[in-house]
Hints:
The chain has 140 residues and is α+β, with helices and mostly antiparallel strands. It has one domain (8-138): HIT-like (HIT family, subunit A, 2-Layer Sandwich), CATH 3.30.428.10. Helices cover 31% and strands 18% of the residues. It has helices spanning 8-14, 58-79, 124-138, and strands spanning 21-24, 28-32, 42-46, 83-87, 103-108. A hairpin with a 3-residue loop joins strand 1 and strand 2. Helix 2 (58-79) crosses helix 3. It is globular, with a radius of gyration of 14 Å. The chain starts with 7 loop residues before the first helix and ends with a helix. Zinc ion is lined by residues 4, 7, 9-10, 49, 100.
Amino acid sequence: MSNDPACIFCKILRGEIGSVKIHEDQDTLSFMDVMPQSPGHCLVIPKRHAADILEISADEAAVLIRATQRLAKAVKSALLPDGIGVYQFNGNAAGQTVFHVHFHVIPRHAGAELGFHARQMADPATLYPLASKIAAAFSQ
Ligand code: AMP
Ligand code: ZN
């Protein structure tokens, strides 16, 4: 499944590096982005390695977008943002920095600017309470 030795998200899936997990199912994992562009910024990845959206099947895309929608609903109910950005980048030229396909789910608050992409590392201590709140919303 998580089968690219050099891929950082595969390393997370194999448990070789830490992450602040929110929810997982048979095919996907949701976890906190370590360089959040807003508080509550999280990611959804498939457990099978694929570089980008062009490398997954239509069925895998359907599974991934369903998991993304579930995460967005959990973020909405846990954090009550005014809006939610769902973003996905393919290729260096499009801004992709980790080459394991993923969706970003980013809570947005009216009047609050989005932080820079993949720039500022968060203190993990700030991520755990957000992850717990979002995880709790999955079971509602
Ligand atoms: P992209 O640029 O669309 O490929 O997004 C990759 C995202 O992964 C960025 O928002 C990074 O902040 C985030 N990221 C990179 N390494 C990690 C990690 N080890 N754990 C969680 N998020 C990460
Ligand atoms: Zn990977």
